[in-house]
Amino acid sequence: AQCTYFAEECKIGIMPGTPRCTYGPVITCENVQNSTISGGSRMAQQQELFDQVKAWSEADFDDETRAEATHLLARATAGDPDATATLEDAFACRLEFGTAGLRGEVGAGPRRMNRVVVTQTAAGFAAYLHDRAARGETSTPPSIVIGYDGRTHSAQFARDAAELMAGAGLRVTLMPEAGPTPLPPFGVSHL
């Protein structure tokens, strides 16, 4: 299935049965640790990484992270081992949504906090909420409360998630300013 909002712009698809969207092949930290990602020579693996970074850059709608990925790719293809190591880490697996939401280093790639990861995750979570409602597991239509704090890009990430969720048909409450972590849970139980 495809995400119903930003699907064309981000070229993302929903993973059946999971509350998240992914870009390209599913790569998890567990896959990397268990070495289940396609094998081959180091050169072939490096080319696969470079192809993945190029595809990510082409789909990234944020100028800052697109430029970062493009710059690192140029350095890595020129033989810079530090740039290659940075890309390997940023593309090794996917940043996962946990009890505290998405947390990670800000930067380009699926293992970093960026607008692509935020919108993909929001699209997947919106689909998950719609699926639960369609199965009759909720007594009310899907809704969400989104808050943010003072960390780098937090307000932008919150706006992106809110716009995507609203575009997917959810009732969205976006906190008007940065606030403490307990505020969204309080909002969920009172809105």
Task: Write a compact overview of the structure shown.
This protein is 49% helix and 6% strand. It has 191 residues and is mainly alpha-helical. It is elongated, with a radius of gyration of 18 Å.
Please explain how this structure is put together.
With 191 residues, the protein is mainly α. Helices cover 49% and strands 6% of the residues. The chain is built from 8 helices and 4 strands. It has a two-stranded antiparallel ribbon with strand order 1-2. It has a two-stranded parallel ribbon with strand order 3-4. Strand 1 and strand 2 (21-22) form a beta hairpin. Helix 6 (115-134) runs parallel beside helix 7 (154-167). The chain is elongated. Residues 1-38 have low confidence and may be disordered.
Structural class label: mainly alpha
- Write down how many β-strands occur, each being a DSSP E stretch of 2 or more residues: 4
Radius of gyration: 18 Å
Helix content: 40-55%
Return residue spans where pLDDT drops below 50 for at least 5 consecutive residues.
Answer: 1-38
Oligomer: single chain
Principal-axis shape equals elongated
Largest sheet data: 2 strands, antiparallel
Question: Kindly, what is the distance between the CA atoms of the first and last residues, rounded to a whole number of angstroms?
Answer: 31 Å
Topology (SSEs and partners):
Blueprint: H1 7-10, E1 13-14, E2 21-22, H2 29-33, H3 42-59, H4 63-77, H5 81-90, H6 115-134, E3 143-146, H7 154-167, E4 171-174, H8 183-190
Parallel strand pairs: 3-4
Antiparallel strand pairs: 1-2
